[in-house]
Amino acid sequence: MEFVSGYRDEFLDFAALLFGWFRKFVAERGAAAASVDGRWQQLETQIRRLPQDPALWVLHVLPNHSVGISLGQGAEPGPGPGLGAARLLGDEPPLHLRDLSPYVSFVSLEEGEEEEEEKEEEEENVEEEGADMEKVEPEEDGEPAPVSSETPQEANPPGEPEEAEQDAGGGEDGCREDRAEDEKGPERRKGRRSEAAPLHLSCLLLVTDEHGTILGIDLLMDGAQGSAGRVSGTENLAPRAYALLCHSMTCPMGSGDPRKPRQLTVGDAQLHSPQCSAVLYCGEACLRADWQRCPDDVSHRFWCPRLAAFMERAGELATLPFTYTAEVTSETFNKEAFLASRGLTRGYWTQLSMLIPGPGTPRHPWGSTPSLSLLLGGDPYQLLQGDGPALMPPLPPDPPRGLFGSWQDYYTWRGLSLDSPVAVLLTYPLTVYYVITHLVPQSFPELNIQNKQSLKIHVVEAGKEFDLVMVFWELLVLLPHVALELQFVGDGLPPESDQQHFTLQRNGPEVSARSGPGVSARLNSGTKEKGGHRDLQIKVSARPYHLLQGPKPDLVIGFNSGFGLKDTWLSSLPRLQSLRVPAFFTESSEYGCVMDDQTMAVATGGGTSPPQPNPFRSPFRLRAGDNCMPWYCNAFIFHLVYKPPQGNGARPAPRPAPPAPTPAAPPVPARRRRGEKKLRRGARRRR
After folding, report:
1. Region Disordered: which residues (predicted)?
2. What pairing do the DSSP bridges indicate for beta strands 52-63 and 260-267?
């Protein structure tokens, strides 16, 4: 079997863990099934004593209707009995991946069904033709009417009734034999099909936590080679899922001690049945309970029409100019397969994937400060590179003459092919560019932001964005005559990066970096001559935004904010209210925008502007564990609407001025007093 280059060792280790755990699970499940009363009661008692896992657990139900596994005969290609299904499923000694190469291949079940349907249609046509040949209807004069499918020699002549009867009698025995053969025929045909029938994995049950850690796996099989009498896997879905969850708690496949989830959700598109088709439920009981939940504004009865409206935006959000749009905006989009097929397995791409980077792959650890050695390499797009040709073309010789409002316009000017996936990473700097050039002038025209030569921007709750810091270099390409200072703020940033400061400077087609130990080492490289290229200064403050000290920024931006998901927003939003600076935020769904508006109202009494689709959103559709709504990174943009001063916008009534104190005598000017003293001294001298 072929694996992605650089992943062989890690993949084999993962496969060994997977099959080893599954084999143990199958053995214990069989033992529990043999003694239902005792074993399961003991297991449930053990689970009740386990500590709770604060992370959400997800039971993924992944049906498979189109792909089968053909088991071959070793070195000989094609299907055959060489490798039994029992061994593949763990009923015999463990199977190593090196053993699979000559035995296993993947086949399309849909093609097989089409071929069987064609064969059945042909057989039916042959039977109909035979029936037409046997049926001869007499006309009014008693002579048989000719049949178009028969030749004159095949029809019995009207003058030979006895021979015809004898032939019919002889044909009776022959028909019995033929019927017997016909009855055996389908069985023989089915037998031949079953010998070569592919192994069908009808459903995959997968238990993970909210971080993607695999905790358990089960394979539900339909009829397969060498497994006569095996029932459909989906018929036992509920007990198999229950057994898998129990074993995942007592013996989790991933890291960690035995534990039980505090909350569990089921990711199965077949389980949801509301009219909005937006929410997934584990069963009818949960659906009815959510529909009638109190108070009414948290019930699904209240949310159903609104969620239906959110679902209608799926087509609009999937309208993108890229050649791969249909694939990456699908509800069943396989992100890992897409990245691996394009060689996007190193650099910043590993932060979008669950794959393990291959040996020798340069990458700074998640959440740590980017190494300056990577920034000093001269190529600002080094970490955006995949295994293939360069993804970013050389810089255009001239700055943009107009403003870009879509991926299509930007890709055309930048010389990018619409097959390039760099939009997934460039969504962050292009969103900042769109806010500066389009949204701030529309919503805050009094700031005249487009004529400013320097901008100080705070990026709030910026853990992931700081890990992708070099993508913001593209802002210097789009806004070459603006000195930009980006200050990344948030308690999710690594503490060792707090107060760090470095400057990215454009030197022709290359980039250089200079660092300082803290804020005191600020590099004033933005004071170049008018018309020259500016610098991009990066600062880090690893603390919540409401604890940040420093000068007031020109603009505040947050990506995929989720105000209701973190308590610090209840303090950071009032701080923004007091600063009253333009603050723009993105969300991955329209539902998230509604939640942010409610949180803003609770925290400050203000609100948010109506969200609008971000033309520079990421093209990758995100999959949610408990709903089917269209989610994209940076999908929508809104800005904060601050509460007016004094709560209602009305100015306070003027108070009567306090009466001025009446002096006993008007003060004498100091200059006049000095003049009088001089006159007195002169008079004394004259005397």
Report:
1. 71-90, 109-195, 499-533, 647-687
2. parallel
